[in-house]
Amino acid sequence: MLLFFLISVEYSAQTISPKEMLEKSIAAMDKVRYARYSLKKTERIKGKLMESENKVKLQVSPLKIYLYSIRPNPGAEVLWKKGENSDDVLVSPNKFPYINFSLSPYNALLREDQHHVILDLGFEYMSEILKSYMRKFGPKFFSSANLDGDVIWNAQRYYKLVIENTFFSYIDYTIKKGDDLPRIASSFYINDYMIIDKNPAISGFKDVEEGQLIKLPNTYAQKIIFYIDKQTFLPLMQAIYDDKGLYEKYEISDLILNQPIPGIEFMSTFKEYHF
């Protein structure tokens, strides 16, 4: 009887469709309310893959984020809470001159050598990207997804989901009055750093002028690979590819999910922090 049960469970897992897997994963991402985890980032910056590691605490609503840097800036801390500190990020750099400072999440200093702003942390960002694909391409999007068996990662077995986006290309876009790259990227569900990467004449996220013609990726990625946890259905490894190859990769480990985080841990006065 036990053998029959195990075979039945394995058979059920194997027969789930890519569409069902995507829907389960999106639903799981949308149910995240609290999360503690370790995050390893690999991002292509100026043609080179750069790595970093952080510890993250996240509350989704109202949004609160604490980040502790392991590398490349050991001991640096970042705190952001919606509606507080003028919606600026509080930063403790843990290096000379050893003083705290506050900056907009979109400030160029915080965005240096970064694909994303701190507000993109968590699972909601990727969930919205996938939903935009579903709205734009409908059933064609699901046909681009494939379950490529299981994969062993971090000593555990995960579903491997591959999305081959044959629709990926670059389109012409004329800058409108009031545009900047974060605003454009948000409208098209793409990454603003990728716009800079494709347009050598653009040196910064606000370095555009009305009437300027630029190239935009029409979707977020040419290929996406997810390692999806078999218990939570969350994509704990996300590898994003453009037409040049690996663009970014995010690896989440030591995840503690949906256990409420005390409010004091999102305060600069918390005893374990050094603000």
Describe the structure in your own words:
With 275 residues, the chain is of the alpha+beta class. It has two domains: 19-166 and 220-266, Clam (outer membrane lipoprotein receptor (LolB), chain A), CATH 2.50.20; 170-217, LysM domain (Membrane-bound Lytic Murein Transglycosylase D, Chain A), CATH 3.10.350.10. The chain has seven helices and 13 strands. It has helices at residues 2-14, 18-30, 108-111, 124-137, 139-143, 181-188, 192-198; strands at residues 34-45, 48-59, 64-71, 77-81, 89-92, 101-103, 145-153, 156-164, 170-174, 213-217, 223-229, 235-242, 245-257. Strands 6-5-4-3-2-1-13-12-11-8-7 form an eleven-stranded antiparallel sheet. The longest helix has 14 residues, at 124-137. The chain is globular, with a radius of gyration of 20 Å. It starts with a helix and ends in an 18-residue tail after the last strand. The model is unreliable at 3-12 (pLDDT under 50).
Terminus-to-terminus distance = 58 Å
CATH topology of the largest domain: outer membrane lipoprotein receptor (LolB), chain A
The number of distinct structural domains comes to 2
Helix and strand run: HHEEEEEEHHHEEEHHEEEE
Per-chain topology:
Layout: H1 2-14, H2 18-30, E1 34-45, E2 48-59, E3 64-71, E4 77-81, E5 89-92, E6 101-103, H3 108-111, H4 124-137, H5 139-143, E7 145-153, E8 156-164, E9 170-174, H6 181-188, H7 192-198, E10 213-217, E11 223-229, E12 235-242, E13 245-257
